[in-house]
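Weekly structure sync, notes
Attendees: PL (lead), two postdocs, one rotation student
Agenda item 3: pending single-chain targets
PL asked that the sequence for the first pending target be pasted directly into the notes so everyone works from the same version. It is reproduced below exactly as submitted, 429 residues in total.
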Amino acid sequence: MHDIKAIRDNPKAFDEGLGRRSLAPRADSLIALDETRRAAILELQKAQERRNAASKEIGAAMARKDAAAAEALKAEVAAIKTAMPALEAKEREAGAALDKELAAIPNLPLADVPDGKDENDNVEVRRHGAPPKFPDGFKPKEHFDIGEALGLMDFDAAAKLSGARFVVLKGALARLERALEQFMLDLHTQEHGYEEINPPVLVRDDAMFGTAQLPKFRDDQFAAGDGFWLIPTAEVPMTNLVRESIVDEAKLPLRFTAGTLCFREEAGAAGKDTRGMIRQHQFEKVELVSIAKPDESLAEHERMTACAEEVLKRLGLHFRTIVLCTGDMGFASQKTYDIEVWLPGQGRFREISSCSVCGDFQARRMNARCKAVDAKSTRFVHTLNGSGVAVGRALVAVLENYQNPDGSVTVPNVLRPYTGGLTRIAPKA
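Predicted structure, written out during the meeting:
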């Protein structure tokens, strides 16, 4: 959420930021709403001040035995008290109208984010490794063909249970997915300094609003009834751990990680990735969240991205890291790096992680602040989130990159301690 004071102080810069996102100027209309809010506040304050002053004057009038003046003042106070609920409602409505507009406006891009319209304008910043080499004449298969041939990936059974965009993993593939998640969590907690969290996967409106899934992206979420939502990512509960609190700056950055089920409607994905595990309603993901000091968030962003990249390096996967352009950024992000892994079956890179720095955008929605010991006032924390990484997509990448011509899949070395020493997943005889 944006700071109306900052908008008033520099409306031109705000509108220029919106323009970079291909959005129309909004500063003037927001300032007009703020003027209405301020006028309502002033009107209420004046009424309160007059009520208090008149109440004191009643005593003075009675002291000098001026009954007529006292009665007139009593009538004035009574009238003000009668009018107060309407004035308070007017103030609340004006504030709510401004907050509603502010809540619907995306974060502004940082200066070094490339301008662009869509994913075609994203910029590659680095690349790691090389595509795997397969024997001559062998055409790499896509993950769903590999998994179904192994007899361990069943989309038909999932469709009977739940419909499209679900899968049932069996046997060694189920274990391999579990191994991937455990490996990632161990890496992030033991080497990268993140604290493991086991959060609820059901959250309330305030939590979804705090990380900006609500209200704009309501149709992308699964409502669970009784005021609950299924989380689309563990970013939601982990970031909200600091909501409505003041954190000691000496304890920052806070770094959290969790491996959870995630749920997404994929409302805008009709016709996209209809086969396989790339885009599902339910999936596993290891998430990274950082709560940082404002002056350290950009460095934390680079660090978080490197932590996600390390997962793919340890798995021996070819990937590239890109910075998203202004037209492809997420709603709450100031800057985002996407990490895309090479999928031989598709013959292209696909997103496996997205790491974003949000500045104080989410913190304002959550009222999450920090304070130094010697500081007189608080300031909003900066929040960051990233996939560390998407477990299902990592399974896809392992299957396609480690497939063999005989239909088997080699288990990457780093995962073997988590699979009971299993080195190869082969078709059933």
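Discussion points:
- The chain has twelve helices and 18 strands.
- The first helix runs from residue 4 to 9.
Action: rotation student to compare against the earlier draft before next sync.
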